Amino acid sequence: MRIPYDTMRAEFIRVLSKYGITGQRAELSATLFADASRDGIYTHGLNRFPKFIKSIEQGVVDVRAEAVREAELGALERWDGQGGCGNLNAHKCMTRAIELAHERTVGIVALRNTNHWMRPGNYGLMAVEENCIGILWTNTVPNMPPWGGKEARLGNNPVVFAVPNGDEAPVLLDVAMSMFSYGKLESYARANKPLPVDGGFDPDQKLTKNASDVLKTHQALPIGYWKGSGLSLMLDLIAAALSGGLTSWGVGQNPYETQLSQVFIAVDLNRLPDAEAFSQRLKMTLQDMLTSAPVDPERPVHYPGQNMMRTRADNMEHGIPVDEGIWDAVCKL
Hints:
The chain is α+β, with helices and mostly antiparallel strands. It has twelve helices and eleven strands. It has three domains: 84 residues, Orthogonal Bundle (Hypothetical Oxidoreductase Yiak, Chain: A, domain 1); 163 residues, Ribosomal Protein S8, Chain: A, domain 1 (2-Layer Sandwich), CATH 3.30.1370.60; 43 residues, Hypothetical oxidoreductase yiak, domain 3 (Wheat Germ Agglutinin (Isolectin 2), domain 1), CATH 3.30.60.
């Protein structure tokens, strides 16, 4: 089943308005959700929307609250999300980081006391649209064990790196520190399909491709094993230090996932003295990478984000693929 982009966005606006997010804020939030599904990140678009509404009903998200600046510390600004809508807070802070980058080459905004930001790649794309490098990450509720442990003590702490690529698709890496995000695990579990590679541990402490087992144990496999575990911890600590907010341990003391810490960094390439030379080196690097002979001839090598524009064009022309059950649930809200 496919739904036109405008229909999906309009339905999101209708529901958001019903739950107290109105006017331009509803339009922006709806656009961020719809854009995620448009670009093929279904887990953080339509599929995530009912959870967002539930978080409003539970009082986790304050629909009236907006992020406010708390402190200016040189190139760093600290902001308080005040428990507001995570995607609106993130959009506001990324906008501010880009403004600072245009003024000072580098802009850093650290945000505390916020909620789930939905698809983080949206904010990386904001940076590249302004010819900026974007680097951003968040901590999460503990949902991943440290390497060698059984209990979830670390967040899977998604991070985004975005680099402009002229008129071509930007280089966009949007990854969690677990092999699969929990949204992706839920998608595989709903479809009753095995994961393409091991995604975590089952109740017998064996690596498994069964997404349902990983969801039960909350023992997602860190990317790079011990390396991903260590990287998750460092991202968590730095986000908390820069924002003055909670670490994942502190987030885990709440009954729900809230009061997260996030960092948004933008670097304005136009202010660098060798921006044009870098652009040429970028293109040569990507061209060289893409000439690597593929292991599977049906699956050529590609760089992160390269296929996004193709997916976007297809979904805009033919409609966005949806899970009919989730779409019906949203329409009934």
